[in-house]
TrEMBL record:
This is O-methyltransferase domain-containing protein. It comes from the Eukaryota. InterPro entries: COMT-like, COMT_C, COMT_dimerisation, SAM-dependent_MTases_sf, WH-like_DNA-bd_sf, WH_DNA-bd_sf. Pfam families: Dimerisation (PF08100), Methyltransf_2 (PF00891). Keywords: Methyltransferase, S-adenosyl-L-methionine, Transferase.
């Protein structure tokens, strides 16, 4: 097929971008890496015929995902790196599990085509750096978790949406996941499957390790440490739905000057698993069983932190979670910190849109744009006082305070005390240019 002039122009443009970003990358500009990857992907798209692209997306990708999941059960990655990674035949790789060498060969060559394994001559396999990563349980967990939880719900998602006349899923307890999985809530489904449950926590931990930490974006010294009350609940940094405590451990390492209490709140099963792993054994992290839909037991804490918690829930449930926190906050002192994706309105990052469809299928939820975050937060009587981010496709950090109550009153005159508060408020804002630290001014005229 002769390429059209316009597509040749696209290829030329894409090549130029690759060369530019490639040069910067080779000059050790690490920030150019993401741009180089994005421009290389754009180049592939420009060079591929639409038919190539179609086959890649709808034919190749699902079969490869299944092959990768089978490879984990066959222990191909772990076996490939053994004995210094010397070349192994499919018979060698099959011996560990007693699987059919023919089957192992079919899976192994699929892995080679994905770059997950290397081939040194026909049917002789060696590990590459990707194999070495996947030989590590923490990274193989990403394959286990994503495949196991997605398998039924993504396969049934089109059918579910057709049955509901293509309405946006909004019900966490009656959505695509329940349609595909005998009406089970996703978290109950997960808790009942120890292998997938463990893989989930390992996977979210590994994801976090390879992305900028929220403490790289948020001025923790100025916003959390300065002005920290030393004792009791007021000194607490509460990680709500904090998984196995890694976020708090990272926080300890990254902000050692934070001397207040560190509280991990989770479901009973997760607290039990964290305790078993020794989280909190040194007494620095307190483990607390807490359901975030019920009243928050730590009152007036310095911060209530939630990483990838709200993206698990549709707006109605998020409002309940946020309202429980709002009721516990000390205005002017406490804040909520939300670490989650903030999707761009245009040309959204592939990581964000993949996560968005994932959340739709599993928990009838979504990733949110800045506008959607603001609307959700403001609907709870809270307000966004800062959005911090670093790089494309990562999680941002949203700082939230209680909203101020409107000062105007239509029908009755304001009393002298209230008028004084208004004057103090105006004076404070004028002096500091910071309305975020202002406590509620309740005018009950
Ligand atoms: C996506 S994970 C995020 C975990 C952790 N924040 C992180 O980023 O590593 C959501 C967490 O919310 C917890 N969770 C779910 N429902 C909960 C509830 N009702 N109360 C408290 N935690 C809950 C889950 O156990 C899970 O660990």
């Amino acid at each position: 097929m002769t390429p059209e002039t316009s597509s040749m122009e696209n290829v030329a443009q894409a090549l130029k971008q690759v060369a530019e970003h490639g040069e910067r990358f080779m000059d050790n500009d690490s920030s150019a890496r993401e741009r180089l990857v994005a421009s290389a992907r754009a180049l592939i798209l420009a060079v591929e015929t639409p038919m190539d692209s179609l086959l890649w997306h709808v034919w190749a990708l699902p079969t490869r995902t299944a092959a990768a999941r089978i490879a984990v059960d066959l222990k191909i990655f772990e076996t490939a790196v053994e004995d210094g990674g010397h070349p192994k035949s499919s018979e060698d790789l099959a011996a560990v599990t007693g699987a059919s060498p023919t089957l192992v060969k079919r899976i192994s060559r699929a892995l080679v085509s994905m770059g997950m394994l290397a081939e040194q001559g026909p049917g002789l396999y060696t590990p590459n750096s990707f194999t070495k990563l996947l030989a590590n349980k923490e990274y193989a967990a990403g394959i286990i978790f994503n495949f196991d939880i997605n398998m039924e719900s993504l396969a049934k998602l089109p059918e579910y949406l057709k049955k509901t006349n293509f309405q946006n899923p909004e019900n966490a307890l009656d959505g695509p996941f329940q349609y595909a999985n005998d009406n089970k809530p996703a978290f109950s489904w997960l808790v009942e499957r120890p292998e997938t449950f463990e893989a989930f926590h390992l996977y979210i931990h590994s994801l976090r390790q390879h992305r900028p930490s929220w403490t790289d974006m948020y001025p923790a010294q100025a916003r959390l440490v300065s002005g920290l009350k030393p004792d009791g609940d007021a000194s607490a940094f509460v990680d709500v739905g904090g998984s196995m405590g890694q976020i708090l451990q990272d926080f300890r390492a990254n902000v050692p000057q934070y001397t207040g209490r560190l509280v991990l709140q989770e479901l009973p099963e997760v607290v039990a698993a964290a305790t078993e792993k020794g989280v909190g054994a040194d007494g620095r992290i307190e483990l607390q069983v807490h359901d975030f839909f019920t009243p928050q037991p730590v009152r007036g804490a310095r911060a209530y932190f939630m990483r990838t918690v709200l993206h698990d829930w549709p707006d109605a449930q998020c409002r309940k979670i946020l309202t429980q926190l709002k009721d516990a906050m000390e205005p002017g002192y406490s804040r909520i910190l939300i670490s989650d994706c903030v999707i761009s309105d245009e040309k959204a990052a592939w990581q964000h849109v993949s996560m968005d469809i994932f959340m739709m299928a599993q928990v009838s939820s979504r990733e949110r744009t800045e506008h959607e975050w603001r609307a959700l937060i403001e609907s709870c009587g809270l307000k966004v006082t800062g959005i911090y981010s670093k790089g494309d496709g990562n999680e941002g950090l949203i700082e939230v305070y209680p909203a101020r109550v409107r000062l105007e009153h239509k029908h009755r005159p304001i009393g002298a005390g209230a008028a004084l508060s208004v004057l103090q408020y105006i004076f404070y804002v004028d002096k500091t240019n910071d309305s975020s630290e202002i406590p509620y001014i309740l005018i009950c005229a």
